[in-house]
Design goal:
Porin; globular; 13 strands; 1 helix; mainly beta
Length: 223
Amino acid sequence: MRSRFLILFLFLGGVSTSFADEAVTQSGPPISIFIARTAEQFQAPHVFTYHMLEYEEMHGKWIIPDIGAFDDGHGNFHEFFAGIGAQYYTGKKVALTEEPYFAQDTGAAGHRARYLWLWTQADFQFAPKLTGVVVLLPCLPLNHSANLEYDIDRAKVEYAFWKHVTLGAGYSGTKFPGSDWSNTPYMVTKVTTHEGIFEFWAQKTDGGGQLQVRYMLIRPKHR
């Protein structure tokens, strides 16, 4: 599988000093953040289950702009989103971020639904090597095609066994109208390099399992 070659490449490559924590805090010049995510099923035929690209900028505590796109890996569902938010609290043990998004669905399975997402993120520093994060995402309908949805994007705990490598476990889940919670626990490995932060989720799904690859690159914004 293509994802296996990607993992092999990353772990054979040297890791070096970069960004230690998932929470991004800054008080200097603006920074740019690029995020890419995808997932591939473990079971045959090893299809991709989604792709996501996102770009945002942090100006002090403010996040503006924040734009991105998502698809279901099959070409019949696309989602475009844009938001503005802020990291409204930063302490020694916790950082809190709130960001509302406007989302527009397209494609045969999208039904032109529109949503207001209320993104809430809490990052925790339990101990020098033990961190955690919780991201909650209720999706409020803005037109008749949309439905009230609830999403736990991630709730995880990680321990830094090595300087640039953390291991941990987490949970994500989604609740759609008329359905039970979709529970997807996972094991996670995070590798920090000069080229960005790479996360690998070995995740249980309703249909079997999948490997998620999550990438984040943080750079000072050039004026």
